[in-house]
Amino acid sequence: MSGTDIKNSGxxxxxxxxxxxxxxxxxxxxxxxxxxxxAVFTDPEELPHEFVGYAVLGLVIxxxxxxxxxxxxxxxSSFPPSPxxxxxxxxxxxxxxxxxxxSHNPLGAxxxxxxxxxxxxxxxxxxxxxxxxxxxxxxxxxxxxxxxNWLMLSIVLHVLGVVLDQRRTxxxxxxxxxxxxxxxxxxxxIK
Length: 191
Ligand code: HEM
Ligand code: HEM
Description:
Blueprint: E1 6-8, E2 15-18, H1 22-41, H2 47-69, H3 83-95, E3 99-100, H4 106-129, H5 138-169, H6 173-179, E4 181-184, E5 189-190
Helix pairs in contact: 1-2, 2-4, 3-4, 4-5
C-alpha cells in the first residue's frame, strides 16, 4: 500500500505497519464503552442513557467524516462495502492465499458498515422517542429494541471474525486496534 509507513522489525522477516491512527482507535474503544454502558448500566428512562447515546452518535458521525479526511487505512474508500469482494475474499481464504489487508478485509468491511448503520438506527429511534410526534409510538420503540438486539448479534460475529482472522493470518488485530500497528508475518503479502 503506497504512502504507508512499513518497517522491517526483526530477524523473523516480519514487517510492522502503522495502520490505525489515534482517532480511529479512540473512537472504537469509546464507542465500545458507550454501548456497554447503555446496554448494561444506564436506565433507559433516565437522562444519562440519552447523553451516552448522543456521545456514541457524535463519535460515529465523526468517524464517518474521518473516513473522508483521515489517513489512507481509515478512508472509507480503502474498504468499500462490496459483497462481491467479500465472496472473493472467502475464496482467497479457501485457496489458502497468504494475503493480509492493511485496512479492514472485505468481510470485516461489511460488518463495520452494518455496525455503523445499526448504531445510527438505534440513536435515531432513541431521539425520535423523545419527540412530540413519535412519543409513545410503538414501532419506534420496537425498532430501537430490535436494532439493539441486532447490534448484540453483530458484535458477537464481529469479535468471532476478529479472533478467527487473527488465527488465520497470525496478525494481532486487537493489539493493532490498541497500538495502531499491524505486525505482518514473513511470507504474507500486504493488500
Ligand atoms: C460494542 C462493541 C463493539 C463495536 C460497536 C465495535 C465496532 C467496530 C467498528 C465500527 C470497527 C471499525 C473501526 C473503524 O474503522 O473505525 C471495529 C473494528 C475492530 N474491532 Fe470492534 N467493536 C466492538 C467490540 C470489539 C471488541 C470487544 C473487540 C476485541 C475483541 C474488537 C476488536 C476490533 C478490531 C481488532 C477491529 C479492527 C479489525 C481489522 O483489523 O480489520 N471490537 N469495531
Ligand atoms: C449506544 C446507543 C444506545 C443503546 C445501546 C441503547 C440501548 C437501549 C436499550 C437496550 C433499551 C431498552 C429497550 C427495551 O427493552 O425496552 C433502550 C431504551 C430506550 N432508549 Fe436507548 N439506546 C441507545 C441510544 C439512545 C438514545 C440516543 C436515546 C435518546 C436520545 C435513547 C432513548 C431510549 C428510550 C427513551 C428508551 C426507553 C424505551 C422504553 O422502554 O419505553 N436511546 N435503549
